[in-house]
Amino acid sequence: MRPPTIRDVAERAGVSKSLVSLVLRGSEQVRPEKRRAVLAAVEELGYRPNAAARSLSERRTRTVGVLLNDLRNPWFVELLDGLNAELYASGLRTLLADGRQGRRLGEDLTHTFTELRVDGLIAVGTLPDPAAVRTAAARMPTVVAGTREPVLPDVDIVAGDDELGARLATEHLIGLGHRHIAHIAGRGVVGELRRRGFEAVMREHGLSGSATVEQGDLTEEGGYRATVRLLGAPHRPTAVFAFNDMAGVGALSAAEELGLRVPDDLSLVGYDNTYLARLRHLWLTTVDNAGHDIGRRAARRLLDRIADPARPGEVALTAPALEVRGTTAPPRPLD
Amino acid sequence: MRPPTIRDVAERAGVSKSLVSLVLRGSEQVRPEKRRAVLAAVEELGYRPNAAARSLSERRTRTVGVLLNDLRNPWFVELLDGLNAELYASGLRTLLADGRQGRRLGEDLTHTFTELRVDGLIAVGTLPDPAAVRTAAARMPTVVAGTREPVLPDVDIVAGDDELGARLATEHLIGLGHRHIAHIAGRGVVGELRRRGFEAVMREHGLSGSATVEQGDLTEEGGYRATVRLLGAPHRPTAVFAFNDMAGVGALSAAEELGLRVPDDLSLVGYDNTYLARLRHLWLTTVDNAGHDIGRRAARRLLDRIADPARPGEVALTAPALEVRGTTAPPRPLD
DNA sequence: GGAGAGGTCTGGAACGGTCCAAAGAAGGGC
DNA sequence: GCCCTTCTTTGGACCGTTCCAGACCTCTCC
After folding, report:
1. Angle at Cα A241 formed by Cα A235 and Cα A247, nearest 5°?
2. pLDDT tier at A39, thresholds 50, 70, 90
3. Is 70 exceeded by the pLDDT of residue A103?
4. Identical fold, A60-159+291-318 and A162-288
5. What is the pLDDT of residues B21-63, one digit of tens each?
6. A69-83, A86-100, B17-31, B235-249 — which is least confidently predicted?
7. Most buried among A85, B46, B171, B267, using CB within 10 Å?
8. What would the CATH number be for the domain defined by B162-289?
9. Which positions 267-286 of A are in contact with B (Cβ < 8 Å)?
């Protein structure tokens, strides 16, 4: 009842197991009739090679571990898609681990990847436990995607240019005539960079005085709360630039609840251009962060690094693009 | 530069490799001082067991393959979460493959799982290639989750009771006073079942004559288009029950675009209670399909089936629950 | 003091592939 | 017909574990 092995195939085809192995790996050095005999035996027995045996012998697994921050964040899923496409094309499989689960179990997930002897690791997004990435990176080729940390020797970083993206969003709002603009900030390095871009542009336009920053988080709830605080303040902004689309949607809800119309009373910009922003009912102006593209680049970086593990780590930034939709407009004339 | 093996550990600790193996597997039959020596050597060398070697010898991988329809559908992600939690607790890893990718490459993904000798397979949602599930199921314990097909011998099915869910939604609308109700139908068995539930309730209330079914698909776009058609027809419905939340959001957009207010002019019910429906700005009345729970159950079924591969396939349905939010209300009094 | 019974520990055979050196077969040239 | 070269094919070692039968201790008991 056991699955057939290469020896079973060899016996059936009347050849040695080595020859079967040669045929299966596509060697040219095999006479056509033997090749046919082997392939026929494979077919008849329904033989499938055993990946564990193969990788034990070859000392590689053709598998890449992906440590993901949060599958619920659509942007990460997009990135993952790009990653998969590129890796698959190079004959590498992808083993996905959701980081939230991993935090519960300490650095267990990187342990798992180490035991599996994955050929490489991609860490996507800001992970709960950066130390785990460090130890993992010491053992296998590693690329960080979609965020700028942790910065480690021999680890590549592939991410969007968050500061530039924030500049685009802010300049768009200023170009429309807004002066009093608020930013709902996110956490981590990415949050920091987007905030910095926002503040820099405001400063360049002499608007530092009317720039507000309110701390949120990456969720709708956070965006909602931050916006309620912003709009409840005495001198309310006419535009809000949110850390990401989820927070942007939260802001949308808050505005609506307070009786403000978007974009007439309040302009709103999100970030990431996830499918949320594309929903017609939301139709959020946002910054396209090219998730798919970043995924592909990260995959290529990893392939390079697997080929040459000692190459110095590089930082590659992708330029984001503004995507203007329905939630931004000139401010209403002053009353 | 190779990672240390069990032999390296044995040498360092001054014992045999067999003893190291015993210690690592937690045997009680080892004297404490030897155990300490082994663990110290493991620590010093940074030893990690090689999963490939282990599974080759043990003839199992402690890994479950998950064939997923679409990572972009939040409901599936929720299901996945439940699945992971339960499997992880039982010491099984999860290997995720996105089906869309697989379709491009034929039944390649099940091949991959076969080669990896995963201990079991979970097929989530309606997959592009049902034949692949059939061949896979012949080789390994298999559970279908989140849909009702394909029905195969020795394969368990764990899903929501779609017909019941549709009944709940429809009865809710009728209870509010709606008479002319439309349904945006989905594809596959799940679409079929929800439509059937809708039609049955309409019939029971003598409303067959004012029940409309419009074909959509699982996306926002599909829901939007279907709703535009519905609302453009001469005798427009006062309520729409959509196949899922995505389609429901599309319907929301269509209604808005045509100048109808939800829920005053049009009531709307979705399905799945994904986080989309929970976004304050959408606040969609929907049917909670207990994705997490279904995931957990599917995992348990698979564990049972791994323990006893010959047990006959069962169908387990989870009862959904109506989640009333802001998109349903009594119809406006007739003009 | 010797037999028997545990409790500990070990060597070697799997597991199912890849890889390599060498054997065997087939053709070419003289 | 023999030697040399070039293709084909093969046996056996190896990859890093687990598993098992048996060896080796150390007691206990008579």
Report:
1. 105
2. very high
3. no
4. yes
5. 999 999 888 999 999 999 999 999 999 999 999 999 999 999 9
6. A86-100
7. B267
8. 3.40.50.2300
9. 275, 279-282
| Strand locations in A201-253 (E) | 211-215, 239-242
Q: How far apart are CA A308 and CA A312, in angstroms?
A: 10
Contact A7, A45 (CB under 8 A): no
What confidence score (pLDDT) does residue A28 get? 87
Task: Domain A162-288: give its CATH code.
Answer: 3.40.50.2300
Q: State the fold for domain B6-49.
A: 434 Repressor (Amino-terminal Domain) (1.10.260)
Q: Nearest C-alpha of chain B: how many angstroms from A254? A: 8
Q: Which strand D bases fall within 7 angstroms of a protein CB?
A: 7-12, 14-20
Q: Nearest-CA distance from B249 to chain A in Å?
A: 7
SS3 content of chain B, % helix, strand, coil (to 5): 50, 15, 35
Listed by start position, the domains of chain A span 6-49, 60-159+291-318, 162-288
CATH code given to domain A60-159+291-318: 3.40.50.2300
For tokens 């729970």, the residue is B293
Q: Quote the CATH superfamily of domain B60-160+291-319.
A: Response regulator (3.40.50.2300)
Mean pLDDT score of chain A: 92
Distance, in Å, from the CA atom of B4 to the CA atom of B49, rounded to the nearest integer, reads 9
Burial of B256 (0-12, 13-18, 19+ CB in 10 A): middle
Cα separation, B210 vs B236, whole angstroms: 10
Q: What is the pLDDT of residue B244?
A: 93
